[in-house]
Design a protein that fits this description.
With about 425 residues, the protein is mainly alpha-helical. The protein folds into three domains: about 20-255, Growth Hormone, Chain: A (Up-down Bundle); about 260-360, no CATH class; about 375-430, no CATH class. It is built from 15 helices and no strands. The chain has helices at about 1-35, 40-70, 85-125, 125-145, 155-165, 175-185, 190-215, 220-245, 250-255, 265-275, 280-290, 295-325, 335-360, 370-375, 400-410.
Length: about 425
């Protein structure tokens, strides 16, 4: 019997330990879940307050529409409409005012959401969420002034508030930014799908709770209900300031890491510097003119044009497959290859520049002339001691490409396409 009691005591202790361990696990999981919460509380506060406030204030707005058209009619009580034709007319006007209010915020919201969405992609979602909360709070403040018995602003002022509210993206910007924030911080697509589904469920659940809460306190004053609504917006604003950072998401950081340009102005500077690339072709043409004899310039330019056409075909045939193969993991990889090729071409240009300078290409040839001797030789044939000379007159000097071309031009005595059998022509300067 004592043994049974001891066994029961041990089992009880084990049960207590298992319960404690289970509770610890639940608390641990709850703590992890609470720490993983980001934008979910924002949707809870916003949609609960929005549905709660709009449910309470909708009869007041209906009454204000009635007062617009029947204020001077003593037979109509806008607090208790008991005539069918009056009720139908008020409903018709109320639907029109609802349409006007929707257009007032929807038109500017289309442009605002586009601009703010692009801004959020680049800089973060915090500012967008704050703007959406501020916009909806500003809109509700306008309705509060209209429904107030002391201020009692005209109903059309809600349209003015709606325009300014639409410029902030209104309430639609908040869930969009929240879902985008989840995409920014969640790298796993499967986990992102789960979290987005939970966020949508929380959004709908908050609307239901807001409507039920408004029904439970249906006799509350409109001003107090709107105070509750604005209080939830304030809590959402403070939570966003505390919990949501203003920084780009994972994908934006990955996109930025793929390129060297970190700021927009760098792209504009690159375009400006790239404009000088058009000077390469005139420089090459000028260089060809200096090293090629005049009678062969046309053929040289033909080869230059053929080479340019081949280069265009080859670059498209090579660059397109490279871009297709590297676009998924590094879209800028092709531009790095192009930069390397251009760097090699730049080094080749530098080598040609210094080589040409050492050989005197482009340097004007000036010879001292004996004026009296030149006058006395008018009408005579040129010879090696005159103003013309051949390569044989300088046998000890190494001739450059430019010297060959210059002598070739000076020795030609026939037409441009003279006989190729003319022994007086120096063939060593030919481009070919």
């Amino acid at each position: 019997m004592l043994t049974n009691i001891e066994n029961n005591g041990e089992k009880s202790d084990e049960t207590d330990k298992s319960i404690v361990e289970h509770m610890k696990k639940i608390l641990h999981d709850t703590r992890i879940y609470l720490l993983s919460l980001t934008v979910e509380p924002i949707c809870v506060l916003i949609y609960f307050g929005w549905v709660f406030g709009n449910t309470i204030q909708s009869p007041g707005l209906y009454r204000r529409v009635c007062e617009i058209y029947y204020m001077d009619d003593p037979n109509v009580d806008c607090y208790h409409i008991d005539k069918d034709h009056v009720e139908n007319n008020v409903q018709r006007h109320a639907s029109l005012w609802t349409l006007y209010n929707a257009l007032a915020y929807l038109v500017p919201a289309i442009f605002a959401d586009t601009i703010l969405g692009a801004y959020g992609d680049k800089h973060g979602r915090k500012i967008n969420i704050l703007l959406g909360i501020a916009g909806i709070a500003f809109s509700e403040f306008g309705y509060m002034l209209t429904l107030s018995d002391s201020v009692h602003t005209p109903y059309w002022t809600t349209l003015v508030f709606g325009i300014f509210t639409g410029a902030t993206g209104y309430i639609a910007l908040i869930p969009v930014s929240c879902n985008a924030y989840l995409a920014d911080i969640t790298a796993d697509p499967d986990l992102l799908t789960i979290r987005s589904g939970i966020l949508s469920m929380i959004q709908g659940f908050s609307c239901v709770i807001g409507g039920y809460s408004a029904a439970l306190v249906g006799n509350i004053a409109i001003a107090k209900a709107m105070d509750v609504e604005l209080a939830t917006y304030l809590l959402a604003l403070l939570y966003t300031l505390w919990r949501i950072p203003q920084r780009p998401g994972i994908r934006e950081l990955e996109r930025r890491s793929r390129g060297l340009a970190k700021e927009d102005w760098m792209l504009y500077v690159a375009q400006f510097v790239g404009c000088f690339g058009g000077l390469i072709q005139p420089a090459v043409v000028s260089y060809i003119v200096q090293i090629v004899p005049y009678e062969e310039v046309g053929r040289a330019f033909s080869l230059f044009g053929i080479g340019a056409n081949f280069a265009y075909i080859i670059t498209n045939a090579i660059y397109s497959p490279i871009y297709s193969a590297t676009e998924a993991w590094f879209p800028g990889f092709l531009f790095i290859i192009i930069t390397a090729i251009q760097a090699i071409a730049g080094l080749a240009m530098l080598w040609v520049h210094f080589k040409s300078k050492s050989e005197g290409i482009g340097k004007p040839k000036e010879q001292k002339r004996d004026i009296q001797k030149a006058i006395s030789e008018i009408g005579s044939e040129p010879h090696e001691d005159g103003i013309f000379f051949t390569h044989n007159s300088r046998p000890d000097k190494h001739l450059t490409i430019y010297d060959h071309a210059l002598e070739r031009d000076q020795l030609k005595v026939d037409e441009l396409w003279g006989s190729m059998s003319d022994d007086g022509r120096e063939r060593m300067g030919s481009f070919f």
